[in-house]
Amino acid sequence: MSNRHKATFLLFVAFVGFLGSYPFHESFAGGLIASTCSAALIGGLADWFAVTALFRKPLGIPFRTEIIPRNRERIFEALIHMVEGELLTKANLKEQLNRFDLTELLFRHLSDAQQAGDLTRFVSTKVTQWSEHPKAVEVMEDAMKIIFMEVPLAPVLADHIESALDKGHAGRLVDLAVDELKDLIGHPAVTPEVIRLIKEAKQNYESGMKRRRFFNESILGMTPETLAVRLQKDMENFLAGIHDADHPLRLRLLQRIQEWAEDLRRDPVRQQKVEEWKKRLIERLHLRPMLEEVIQGVRSYKNSAADEEPKWLKLLRSRFLKLLAEWKGDKEQRQGLDRIIKEFLFLWIDEKHGELGKLVEENLQRISNDELVELIESKAGNDLQMIRINGSIVGGFVGLLIFLLTFWMP
């Protein structure tokens, strides 16, 4: 039996008891029962009116009734303030995020998807669904710029340079640069420019002196064209020698790269210059056309009937699995990833925390008065009925005391 039924039953008992005992109220027993039941009836009815007035108009009386529906805005304001200003403050949200290793949650989720054989489908579905959002390009552009601007570039560059040195990739970079430089020097379009420089140097050397001109033309017998070809050939041979792992210049270049990586970690001036360069680059960087092309490609894949995966999805999947395997076994990289995710979430919280109150308000405003009353009654209605029960019991007890105190009074 619910408290509502118990309260109604007590009210009914008090009513029946009063009607049955009132004809005998002049006797001690009859008066005692009548006084007790009448007081219990009055207390129970008064508390029934009070409890009902919280939600509705008891007996159709509009004065000071329907308290909750009439004060819904004040209630909603209090709830919004409690959620935004007490429960889910910026500090509380950040503190809760800092308690968890977000990479552990991320890897656990991705691992489950992979074990089920749904990783590719999961990535494809999420990407294609998200690409349909009208602000997909804008969100991607903002997110990329936030990441680029907020994540320090110097430590990332230092990590990649040192990793490349450890794995021998820096040597490949030197070889690539040397080969490109060789191709540039040996290009036919460079020869006329070399000839021009040689002629200028020859004129500056001779300075109108006939002996030097005679020596250059008669003794050496080398024209600017011949010197240019020889100079290009010698430079190509010199650059080819840099491919040798023990070449002094190659070793100096690798040493300089190592020193540059160390400067990126320890030199504040160098770090500041890198950040300034990064900022200028991002300001000039036009990401929107590229992102629009990417989004269009994703949408085209979604609308196509082809079963074969597109290249972007294959590349994304292979790179994703490779990074996942590397991060799982590298504690430092996991900590770095966790830090980046949290920094991004903290920035998002700082920027969007004001939207939390609006979100709560929007959802609360969808609730009608009847739904609000039903919600509160379903959660607290049973406890509120205890007021009626206590009213009847306390009222009956007071009525009994009053009768005992006044029965023998003249």
Write the layout of secondary structure elements.
Layout: H1 3-21, H2 28-55, H3 67-70, H4 72-87, H5 90-98, H6 102-115, H7 119-131, H8 136-150, H9 153-167, H10 169-186, H11 191-206, H12 210-220, H13 224-241, H14 248-266, H15 268-284, H16 288-303, H17 311-329, H18 331-352, H19 354-365, H20 369-406
Structural class: mainly alpha
H/E order of the elements?
HHHHHHHHHHHHHHHHHHHH
Q: What's the story with the biggest beta sheet?
A: none
How confident overall, as mean pLDDT?
A: 77
Total E-strand runs: 0
Oligomer: single chain
Proportion in β-strands: under 5%
Helix count from the secondary structure assignment: 20
Uncertain segments: none
Helix content: over 70%
Distance, first to last CA = 45 Å
Rg on CA atoms, Å: 43 Å
Specify the overall morphology.
rod-shaped
What characteristics describe this protein?
410 residues, mainly alpha, 83% helix, rod-shaped
Write a structural description.
The structure is a single chain. By secondary structure, the chain is an all-alpha fold. It has helices at 3-21, 28-55, 67-70, 72-87, 90-98, 102-115, 119-131, 136-150, 153-167, 169-186, 191-206, 210-220, 224-241, 248-266, 268-284, 288-303, 311-329, 331-352, 354-365, 369-406. α2 runs antiparallel to α20, α4 packs antiparallel against α19 (354-365) and α8 packs across α16. The longest helix is centred in the C-terminal third of the chain and has 38 residues, at 369-406. The chain is rod-shaped, with a radius of gyration of 43 Å.
